[in-house]
Write a structure and sequence with these properties.
By secondary structure, this protein is an alpha+beta fold. The chain is built from 5 helices and 12 strands. Keywords: Signal.
C-alpha cells in the first residue's frame, strides 16, 4: 500500500468519525419530530398528529432538545414544561441531552434550561418569536432586558429607550389577534397607528397598569420623550 493510498484511507476514516455525531443528531431530530413518547412507549405522529414536536440544537456545544406541545394545564411531574406563546410545551426526555433540561438529572434547572432554549431559538436577527413563560402559571421567567427587547421585536413591537438601556417600553401594534390581550393596557398612537404597552417586556413601572407605581400622566410623558428621541411621533388616543 503506497503513501497516497494510506493517506486516502486515513482521511476517509477521519471523515467517517467526524460525520458520525452529525448523523446521530440527525436521527435523533427525526425521531423527535416523528415519534411521541408516552409512559415509556413511543407512538408515531400519525397516532398523535396534533403533538408535532420541534427539535433545537446548539452546534457550538453539541446540545439538543426536543419540545412538544401538550394539551393540559395540569403539572407534568416527569418532564420540564413551559408555556411557549399560548402552547403548553414539555421537554421530551428521550431526545434531550441538556442536563439542565432533564428532570432525571441532578443539574436540572428551570431557568437555566429556559435560557438554553432561548439561545437555540435565537437566530441572530435580534428578535424572538416565542415568549417563554412558566408552566402552568404563565408567569415571566427572565428578568433580562435583552430577552425582553428581542421578544418585543419578535412580535412586531417597537422598543423605546432613552440614555439608559435598562429603561425601556415595548409598544406592540393592536391587531384583531392581540386586541383582547392589550385591551386593558396603556395605549397610544405611534406614528398614527394604535399601539399598546406590553407590560412583560417593559421596565418603566409607571406604564404598567397592574403595578403599584402606575401613573398615566407620567407614562404618557415618558412615551412622548422616548418616542421623540427614537424619531417616533407619540400621541394620545383621546
Amino acid at each position: 500500500m503506497n503513501f497516497k493510498t494510506i493517506l486516502s484511507v486515513f482521511c476517509l476514516g477521519i471523515a467517517t468519525i467526524s460525520a458520525s455525531p452529525i448523523n446521530e443528531v440527525a436521527d435523533i431530530k427525526k425521531s423527535c419530530e416523528n415519534y411521541y413518547q408516552y409512559h415509556g412507549y413511543y407512538f408515531t405522529n400519525s397516532e398523535f398528529r396534533y403533538n408535532q414536536a420541534k427539535f433545537y440544537t446548539n452546534e457550538l456545544t453539541g446540545e439538543y432538545t426536543c419540545l412538544r406541545p401538550i394539551y393540559t394545564e395540569t403539572v407534568v411531574d416527569d418532564r420540564i414544561c413551559y408555556l411557549f406563546n399560548n402552547d403548553f410545551t414539555c421537554i421530551e426526555e428521550g431526545f434531550n441531552n441538556i442536563p439542565n433540561c432533564s428532570k432525571k438529572s441532578d443539574a436540572a434547572d428551570y431557568v437555566k434550561c429556559a435560557y438554553k432554549i432561548v439561545g437555540m431559538m435565537d437566530d441572530g436577527s435580534n428578535k424572538l418569536t416565542y415568549r417563554i413563560r412558566k408552566f402552568p402559571t404563565k408567569e415571566k421567567i427572565f428578568d433580562d432586558s435583552d430577552v425582553d427587547q428581542k421578544e418585543c421585536r419578535g412580535f412586531n413591537g417597537t422598543v423605546l429607550s432613552y440614555k439608559d438601556s435598562s429603561k425601556y417600553i415595548c409598544l406592540e401594534p393592536v391587531t384583531p389577534k392581540n386586541a383582547m390581550t392589550l385591551s386593558n393596557k396603556e395605549c397610544v398612537k405611534l406614528d398614527g397607528k394604535v399601539h399598546c404597552v406590553v407590560e412583560d417586556n417593559t421596565s418603566i413601572e409607571t406604564c404598567i397598569k397592574d403595578g403599584k407605581n402606575y401613573n398615566h400622566e407620567a407614562c404618557t410623558s415618558t412615551l412622548k420623550e422616548y418616542g421623540n428621541f427614537n424619531h417616533h411621533a407619540i400621541t394620545e388616543l383621546y
